[in-house]
Amino acid sequence: MTNRRIKMFEYRQIIHRMREGESNRALARSGLIGRIKAKMIRYIATINDWLNPAVSLPNEEEIANTIIATDHATKKIIKLDPYKQQIDDWIQQGITARVIHQHLVQQYKFAGSYNCIQRYARKINNDPLNDLTIPLSFAIAEAAQVDFGQGPKIFDPTCNKLVKSWIFVMTLCFSRHQYVEIIKHQDSITWLGCHRRAFEWFGGVPKKIIIDNTKCAITKACYYDPEIQRAYMEQAEDYGFIISPCPPYDPAKKGIVESGVKYVKKNFLPLRKFRDFTDSNIQAKQWVLGEAGNRTHGTTRQKPLTQFIEIEKQLLKPLPAVAPELCVWKKVHAHRDCHIRFEYSKYSAPYRLAKQELWLKATENTIKIYQDYIMVAMHCRSQQPGSTTTIFQHLPPNAQNFLIQDAAWCIEQAKTIGHHCEQFVGVLLNNTVCDTLRAAQAVIKLQTTFGTSRLEAACKRAIGFGASGYKVIKEILSSGLDAEIVIHQDPFDKLEAAYSGAGKFCRNSKELIIH
Fold first, then answer.
1. What is the pLDDT of residue 371?
2. What DSSP element (H or E) covers 463?
3. 382 phi and psi, to 5 degrees?
4. Closest of 248, 221, 220, 217 to residue 234, by C-alpha
5. What is the tens place of the pLDDT at every residue in 432-470?
6. Could you tell me if 329 and 372 are in contact, meaning their C-beta atoms sit under 8 angstroms apart?
7. Total domains, the chain
8. pLDDT level of residue 4 (50, 70, 90 thresholds)
9. What's the rounded Cα separation, in Å, for the pair 423 and 415?
């Protein structure tokens, strides 16, 4: 027989039939109760003397209370009593029955089975009292609810094709007056921009903004500790409103927002044609101020626009004197080249922060880089993808030296050392096959080890032998050869006397010998 739930009034009928002599098997065949359950009821009836025909049957309430108390006493679920409060909290947090059972066994030496935990969790989850909701009510100018909804495909002249669109809806909770905007993206900068334009549309700011857990606002949804986007937190501080994320996976608590988006989709979009995004938003504003604003709202039974103008608008917080600048915060990584990447462009950061995680704040015109809360770099925002913006002081010392010490610098430094050093470095840099800038820099650097006069002498000796290169100078200085005097004389000068005053071949052997 199936595990049918027996109604309380049926217990009296079952006991009556038992008094009439009906067996457990006969009761089971009748479909009224199973044999196991019948055996348990017969036991309870026997110990309470209910099967005695001489004793009148108690009323239904007394029978029910006795059976329920006896039934609970025989079940293992009684073992949960010391832990029920803790188990209830765990179940509310979404922890599985398997994990709860393992924890109870390990920490409290729980003797019950996994099945009893599972049954209890199922009972809690199926409790109709857990599914009760209450209508949300808000004071004047207390809150607004925000959400995105998918819109139609609209022509975008920038790419000359139809693109997806999204509908941003902000609904004031008291008056139900709305701000509607059709947008191209669901990114953070668009989200912040829609908020600013919505506040300007209302002419003020509500105390609280209730949002769904959209990624452009909430980085990590959580029932108790949601993580909010840093840029959105900053905007909330600038405008003076509180961010109130809805509990995740609980659509009953989203409230007015879902109906607002649904209302826009069903009543504004159908049978309309939009030339582009500008045209769609002009039509949306006209519709909000016309049909949507002047309808009788199904819940409040008032006209949203009238309620807003006459009551709610005056109690909204005033807008800031200067609209806060829109920005995007993003975690970035400083690479080995001392640059971070953002939107296909590179920006330098101090070399001491290489290989670390940093924060980037991007506004319309600037890029600011932070280490925690300390700003370590600021750049003009590049408008050309693929570009690199570098501040010289951000590079490591060796890279700074290399960039400063160009060919002109090497020539100037060689002049201060001496004429021969200038000549040697000039010849070295005039190599038309290989880039010898690093060699020239190394030659100049040798003065710090060997001194200016020795470097000048070494260059003079190298020139005398027609040698070139950094290794030549280094070898001369290391071996001390710069101290030897080099007499540079063309060997063919000694042949001039042999050819004077005589025929070309009229000379003796002594005159041909060159010592």
1. 92
2. helix 452-464
3. -75, 135
4. 217
5. 888 888 899 899 999 988 999 999 999 999 988 888 889
6. no
7. 5
8. low
9. 9
Find out whether 444 and 414 touch, Cβ atoms under 8 Å: yes
Domain extent for 109: 76-131
Residue 164 · residue 194 · CB < 8 Å: no
Tokens of 352: 């001491």
The 3-state DSSP class for residue 120 equals helix
User: What are the tokens at 510?
Assistant: 């002594």
Cβ atoms < 10 Å from Cβ of 61: 9
Alpha-carbon gap, residue 356 to 381, rounded angstroms: 22
The mean pLDDT of 43-57, rounded to a whole number, is 84
Residues 263-289 as b/e (b if ≥16 CB within 10 A, e otherwise) read bbbeebbeeeebeebeebbebbeebbe
Residues 23 and 49 in one domain: yes
Sequence letter at residue 284: A
Encode 37-53 in three state secondary structure: HHHHHHHHHHHCCCCCC
Phi-psi region of 41 (alpha: psi -120 to 50; beta: other; left: phi over 0): alpha
Residue 94 tokens read as 């979404």
Return the SS3 of 345: strand
Q: Can you read off the two tokens belonging to residue 403?
A: 């960039």
| Residue 21 pLDDT class (50, 70, 90 cuts) | confident
Q: Where are the alpha helices (DSSP H) in 188-274?
A: 188-202, 230-239, 256-267
The one-character DSSP state at 384 is S
- Do 367 and 444 reside in the same domain of the chain? no
Angle at 99 between CA 96 and CA 100, to 5 degrees: 85
Q: 3-class SS at 271? A: coil
Residue 454 lies in a domain: yes
Q: Two tokens at 245?
A: 């994320």
CATH code of the domain in which 187 resides: 3.30.420.10
Residues 164, 261: one domain?
A: yes
Write out pLDDT tens, residues 219-239: 888 777 788 899 999 999 999
What CA–CA distance (Å, rounded) separates 461 from 485?
A: 8
Mean pLDDT of the chain: 84
Residue 498 lies in a domain: no
Q: Residue 216 has what pLDDT? A: 87
Token representation of residue 237? 């501080």
In a domain, 502, yes or no: no
103 & 170 share domain: no
The band of 492, judged by pLDDT with boundaries at 50, 70 and 90, is very low
Place of tokens 């949601």: 226
Strands of the sheet with 166-172, listed across from one edge:
178-183, 166-172, 143-150, 208-211, 242-245
